[in-house]
Design a protein that fits this description.
The chain has eight helices and seven strands. It is of the alpha/beta class and 255 residues long. The chain has a single domain (9-249), classed as 3-Layer(aba) Sandwich (Rossmann fold), CATH 3.40.50. Strand 2 (33-38), helix 2 (41-53) and strand 3 (57-62) form a beta-alpha-beta unit. The chain is globular. The structure holds nicotinamide-adenine-dinucleotide (NAD).
């Protein structure tokens, strides 16, 4: 264990599955205490078990990031005993439906995706801002290759919009919080095998093949592939890095 994050308290939204779970495990291995904030208590409990059985420290709070009041209450609950110094805004959802479909369904997809991926990121960040400023902390937001493009993913206007917003928020906040010593960065994963795309991978092999043709490393990613950049951006190894997006996409955006 290198203990790059020793002494840190890391709050990870959506830490009960996929990329967030991988980040929690990596942060704990590096010595951070991890607090999992997830709407799904079963997933959160699974992550707590994985971390603690490996000798790390973790706890979970059930939280729907779309609930602004609940985000404030969670931050206040944690602040009673310690201060969060690393925040990972990772909770996210996706649906791939065309804009020309049933108007009510299209509007619901828009509302749901924007409220989790974008409003949720604001709600949680705002709730933890005092703690992050007090600790000269670090924020890591999970963007996407869809923070730039949606070439291989038709029917994803809402998701693409949300992930462009993640990048805009990252840059704007980095500019604002730099004077407080708070660093704000993002990670842009490519196609990572998790629950969010399990159905798409199972039912749409052409989409996966199209992405792989555009991916120099020629394989889908795993949550562990995102954990390394997430440790880097949370640790002092990136002390002079802010406002960046680190692409962890097998080279997708390069070609
Ligand atoms: N898997 C990929 O290919 C990929 C690529 C680029 C970006 N991302 C992003 O990575 C992040 C993590 O996704 P994943 O692939 O691990 O998916 P996942 O479905 O495995 O995990 C998402 C987690 O977010 C939680 N969550 C969903 N809505 C929530 C809410 N309202 N409040 C609190 N928690 C909530 C879920 O319970 C789950 O634990 C997302 O922001 C996603 O957009 C994923």
């Amino acid at each position: 264990m290198a203990e790059l994050l020793k002494g840190h308290i890391a709050a990870v939204t959506g830490g009960g599955s996929g990329i967030g779970q991988g980040i929690c495990q990596a942060y704990a291995r590096e010595g951070a205490e991890v607090v999992i904030l997830d709407a799904n208590p079963d997933g959160a409990r699974e992550t707590v078990d994985l971390v603690t059985s490996a000798g790390g420290k973790a706890s979970a709070l059930k939280l729907d990031v779309t609930d602004r009041q609940a985000c404030r209450a969670a931050a206040a609950e944690i602040a009673r005993t310690r201060k969060v110094s690393i925040l990972v805004n990772n909770a996210g959802i996706n649906r791939r439906n065309p804009m020309v479909g049933d108007p009510a369904a299209v509007a619901k997809d828009w509302d749901d995706i924007l409220s989790v991926n974008l409003d949720g990121m604001f709600n949680v960040t705002h709730a933890f801002l005092d703690q992050l400023r007090a600790t000269r902390g670090r924020i890591v937001n999970i963007g996407s290759i869809q923070s730039f493009v949606h070439v291989s993913w038709p029917n994803s206007a809402a998701y693409t919009t949300s992930k462009h917003g993640v990048l805009g928020f990252t840059r704007a906040l980095a500019a604002e919080l730099g004077k407080d010593g708070v660093r704000v960065n993002a990670i842009g994963p490519g196609l990572i095998e998790t629950r969010i795309n399990a159905e798409a991978r199972a039912t749409n092999p052409d989409m996966v093949a199209a992405v792989m043709r555009h991916t120099p490393l020629n394989r889908p990613g795993k949550p562990e592939d995102i954990a390394g950049p997430a440790v880097f951006l949370a640790s002092d190894m990136s002390a002079y890095v802010t406002g960046c997006i680190v692409m962890a996409d097998g080279g997708f955006r390069t070609v």
